[in-house]
Each structure stands twice: as structure tokens, then as C-alpha cells.
Design brief:
heterodimer; A: 201 residues; 8 helices; 56% helix; B: 359 residues; mainly alpha; two-stranded antiparallel sheet; 14 helices; 40% helix
Chain lengths: 201, 359
């Protein structure tokens, strides 16, 4: 009886922490037809809902890049556009990112927008397009006519359906993280996810 | 002489009676109670329309200076209305310096904030909005931002019969917060007579809670708090205590509280900042224990990651130099039972919030 009790307690000790971790709600976020950075088959996918005029998104950008460097080839970042409607340049800078993506230079424009924010007015965006050797005429037409609208509106609707109200929000392999956290916080989740992926293999 | 003797007997009887009454009141105060309906101030009745307006404001990023933060940024519904961080999330480029408490059941709180500087939800609401390290919004500017929105103007007129103003914004937010009640926790069912509401292990934990572990000394009543402030000498959070942004905030808080040596302050002095009373030096509010399983990390600075760490802290008699706690000498089994009680008994029904359409 004593052995049985000890065994049950041992099982409890082993499985409770694991189950708490696995109980963390995981969201299934569609990633098709969205710009991304990093290998498509990476074991860890970070979906980030961002706004290029949001100071928190700017603050955290170097940490996300650092994560990608530290876990080289194992982390993929997918961007979802969530421009705040009351910011002057949030929407037009999302349009700029979508057009740069269509022209094959998403990563370069994404990095530039984060670096240059809040200088995200129309003239500045056209300047960045020139700097990146994009087809400037096409780019200008795209941002003037909201040609990225289908993608941006889709992402906004997705954010709403997920009950999101601000930026940044991350989904690391579906685990929701709201707001800015320190590097170690993200790092630990990535490590656990990599361990989980390894265990599954 | 007999008359004097009679007087003496009467005097002794009165004293004895007073003693009995005092003791019974004290005993009454130290009991656990099921959660009653939340108290509502007479000048701010809760109506569905006001709650809906308050919910919109709660999630509205106009309440922060640069549109990054809303109340919900640090009181996230699916994190039990905390943000799950040791030190609460902050306005961009700044650092908060205390842990974000849960808003669940906050309607029952007599004091708000870890240092108790507000005594009503209405009073509380403006502090984080104007705090430079939280929402960093100018209150006059906020009123104009809200007033500019037609839908808000109409709602304020309909609900309060008045144009938008700061007091009404605070009342609406407070009304919404008063609805965040976690009902029907196992402890409530148990206290109402359902003996099966707690497992045997949790019952053992309850016994410890009320006995050897002495939790009930401070965590009593329906809200599981004495609504008081105690200096347990919780250690400073080593991760932050020397960090520049954190030091800035600590100095700032000391400075606005007119603490003379604010430049050299090395600790969070808690309630002392407000009262300057010796007994409040490094004292913090006794938090509710309802929903405690969902509100890690713990203490005013999030220094403990788990309930195990908190139980160990109390078991060893609190922090260095405290005069409140004594070692409890709980065994491992007792600590486990106590934790089972905290986790199992004190979590009520989850609160589901539908995100409002913010105008």
C-alpha cells in the first residue's frame, strides 16, 4: 500500500508540471500567405502581430532578431499586420511592408521600418523603397491605393477573432504572449519548444 | 462594604463581558466566509450600460499617452487579469517597479495598490493612467480625446446625463471592474455546507491554513485578507533592484512622495511612502488569496515564481529582520496539503470577457 502511494505520488510529481506546460492553450494561427523570416520548416514558429508605429514593437524588435540568431535556422518569424487605426502612419507603413514583400524584399523593408520608426510618412517610405532598389513607381502606386488592403484587413480580422486589442502579441508555436517581455522569457519558451520538438522525433 | 463588594462584582462582570465580546469579534474576524454579492457605492450604481462603457474604456488605448497601453495591457483577461510578469509591464522605454495584482474580486478590496494609496476603484483608476511608467497619459488631454468620439459622447450622456469628464470615466471603469467576480469557488461551496466540495488533501490544507500555518491571521473573511499592511521583509527582486530603469522608477516614486533621500533609495518602502509611520516601513497590503493559483509570480515585486516558494518563505518565518512572522515548522506533507488547498479551493468560475468594439 505504501509503495503504491509512493508510486502515485511520483507519477503526480512527474506529470503535473508537464501537464501544466502542455495545458497552456495553443492557438492555431494560419501562416500561409503572410511574410516570414527564417526557414519554413523551423521547429519554432513565432507569429508576431505588430504595428510599425508602436513603440513596444520597436523596443522588442532587436530581441526577436537576437532569438533568430541564437537559434539559427530553428526559429521562423511570421508577421501579421495589426496597425492601430489612430496612429498616423501605422496603416501606410503596413502597406509599404506588404508591397516590399510582393517585390521580394520584405525582410529588408521590415528591418528598415522598425529602425526608422516613427519616420513612416509617405515621403519617407518612398525614400526607403528607393534605398532598397524597389520598383518605386509600383511601390508608390501600391501604398497610395491601399493595394495591401486584402492582407492587412485579413490580419486585422484575425486579430479581432483572437480577441487581441494591442501590439505586440506573439504566438510561439501557438502559445500566446501579450506585450513586451524580456529576452530570457522568450528564450526559455523557445528552448522548451525545441526540447518538445526533439522529444516528438 | 457589601455595596462596595457589589460594585466590584459588577465591574468584574462588565470587564468579563467586554472581554468575551472582544474575543468573539476577533474570532469572527479571523473566520473564512463565502463570497457575498460585491459591495457597490451608492454614488456609482452598476448598470449593464455603464459596465459596457467601462469595458470599452478598459480596453481603449487612448488611455495611454502613445496608444500602446490600455488597462488590459497589465490586467489581461486570460491571465486572471494580471500580466503574468514579475514586474508589471510598462510604458515604452520605462520600467514598472511592482507586480500587477489581479482584478478578479477587486470589488471587495478596501485599499487599492500594494501601498493602499487609493480607497476606492474610482479613486484608483486615474493613477495608472497618469503614471509615467504605466500609461503616461495626461488626464485633461484624455478627457478631450474621449470627448472627441461621438459614440462615447452619446453613451456618457445616456448613462450619466452629463458630458464626458474625468470623474465619469473613472466611474465607468470602476463599474466594469466590479463585475469581475469569480463565483462559486470550492471554498464557497464548502463554507455553505457542501462537505464534498474539497478533497481530503485540501481539507487538511484548510486545517493548516486556519491552524499551524497561521495564514488566517491575515488572510481571513470573504476576500481572504485583513485589509491591512504588513512588513514581511520580502527580499528585493535581484533581477531588477540594480537595473537602471527600475532604479529610475523607484527614485521617482520616492521623489513624488517627498522622501528626502530619494536619490539614494535602495528599497521599495511600500506603505511608508504614503503614511511615514514607522510600522508601515516596507509594509505592503495583504493581497487576497482568491484565484492565487492563477496569479503567479507572487509578492509586491514578483520575486517568488511559485506557491512553493511563497510557502517556503512563510515557513522559514518571512524575510530577514521582520517582526511579524515566526517559523512555522511545516513538514513537506503539510506544505503540500496547504498548496493543494490554495490551488484547489480558491479558484472560482472563470470570467469570460468578449472584447468590446472600441469606437
Amino acid at each position: 500500500m505504501k509503495i503504491l502511494r509512493s508510486l502515485i505520488f511520483l507519477i503526480f510529481l512527474i506529470f503535473v508540471p508537464l501537464s501544466i506546460y502542455s495545458q497552456e492553450k495553443r492557438y492555431n494561427i494560419p501562416t500561409e500567405d503572410s511574410p516570414s523570416i527564417g526557414p519554413k520548416d523551423a521547429p519554432v514558429t513565432i507569429v508576431e502581430f505588430l504595428d510599425y508605429q508602436c513603440a513596444h514593437c520597436i523596443d522588442i524588435a532587436p530581441q526577436i532578431l537576437k532569438l533568430m540568431k541564437e537559434f539559427d535556422g530553428k526559429v521562423r518569424v511570421v508577421i501579421k499586420f495589426f496597425p492601430y487605426k489612430y496612429r498616423d502612419y501605422a496603416r501606410i507603413s503596413a502597406e509599404a511592408a506588404v508591397e516590399a514583400w510582393k517585390q521580394g524584399k520584405f525582410y529588408e523593408m521590415h528591418e528598415l521600418l522598425l529602425k526608422k520608426s516613427p519616420a513612416l510618412d509617405r515621403d519617407s517610405l518612398i525614400k526607403y523603397a528607393k534605398q532598397l532598389n524597389l520598383d518605386v513607381e509600383k511601390f508608390t502606386k501600391a501604398i497610395d491605393n491601399n493595394e495591401g488592403s486584402a492582407i492587412i484587413e485579413r490580419d486585422l480580422a484575425l486579430a479581432k477573432s483572437l480577441g487581441l486589442w494591442g501590439t505586440p502579441v506573439f504566438f510561439i508555436n501557438g502559445i500566446k504572449i501579450i506585450g513586451n517581455r524580456d529576452y530570457e522569457f522568450f528564450r526559455q519558451i523557445v528552448i522548451k519548444e525545441l526540447e518538445g520538438a526533439k522529444a516528438k522525433r | 462594604m457589601p455595596r462596595q463588594k457589589g460594585k466590584l462584582i459588577l465591574f468584574v462582570l462588565v470587564i468579563a463581558l467586554l472581554l468575551i465580546v472582544t474575543l468573539s469579534i476577533a474570532k469572527e474576524r479571523k473566520a473564512l466566509k463565502p463570497l457575498p454579492p460585491p459591495p457597490v457605492p451608492k454614488d456609482n450604481p452598476v448598470t449593464p450600460e455603464k459596465v459596457e462603457l467601462g469595458k470599452k474604456l478598459f480596453f481603449d488605448r487612448r488611455l495611454s499617452g502613445d496608444g500602446t497601453m490600455s488597462c488590459a495591457s497589465c490586467h489581461i483577461p486570460d491571465k486572471a487579469f494580471t500580466d503574468g510578469a514579475e514586474i508589471s509591464l510598462s510604458y515604452p522605454t520605462t520600467r514598472n517597479f511592482r507586480n500587477a495584482p489581479t482584478l478578479i474580486n477587486v470589488a471587495y478590496a478596501k485599499y487599492l495598490f500594494w501601498d493602499g494609496r487609493a480607497e476606492s476603484l474610482e479613486e484608483q483608476a486615474e493613477f495608472p493612467i497618469m503614471s509615467p511608467f504605466e500609461m503616461n497619459q495626461n488626464l485633461d488631454y484624455l478627457v478631450e480625446e474621449i470627448r472627441m468620439v461621438k459614440e462615447y459622447r452619446e453613451e456618457f450622456k445616456k448613462i450619466f446625463g452629463q458630458d464626458v469628464n474625468l470623474e465619469l470615466i473613472k466611474k465607468a471603469i470602476a463599474a466594469f471592474e466590479r463585475t469581475l467576480v469569480s463565483r462559486d469557488a470550492p471554498i464557497d461551496r464548502y463554507l455553505r455546507g457542501d462537505r464534498d466540495a474539497l478533497s481530503e488533501e485540501a481539507k487538511k490544507g484548510l486545517e493548516l491554513f486556519q491552524g499551524k500555518a497561521r495564514c488566517i491571521e491575515c488572510h481571513s473573511g470573504a476576500y481572504l485578507t485583513d485589509h491591512k499592511f504588513h512588513a514581511l521583509m520580502v527580499p528585493e527582486n535581484p533581477k531588477y533592484k540594480e537595473e537602471d530603469k527600475f532604479v529610475i522608477t523607484r527614485r521617482y516614486v520616492a521623489k513624488i512622495n517627498k522622501y528626502p533621500d530619494y536619490m539614494n533609495i535602495k528599497e521599495d518602502l511600500g506603505r511608508y511612502f504614503k503614511t511615514r509611520k514607522k510600522e508601515d516601513y516596507k509594509a505592503f497590503k495583504t493581497p487576497t488569496l482568491r484565484e492565487v493559483a492563477k496569479t503567479a509570480p507572487y509578492m509586491h515585486n514578483g520575486v517568488f515564481q511559485s506557491l512553493d516558494e511563497v510557502i517556503d518563505f512563510f515557513n522559514k518565518g518571512g524575510g530577514d529582520g521582520n517582526k511579524v512572522l515566526k517559523p512555522l515548522n511545516l513538514t513537506e506533507d503539510e506544505k503540500k496539503a496547504l498548496k493543494t488547498f490554495l490551488v484547489e479551493a480558491l479558484s472560482g468560475q472563470s470570467i469570460h470577457i468578449d472584447l468590446p468594439d472600441i469606437p
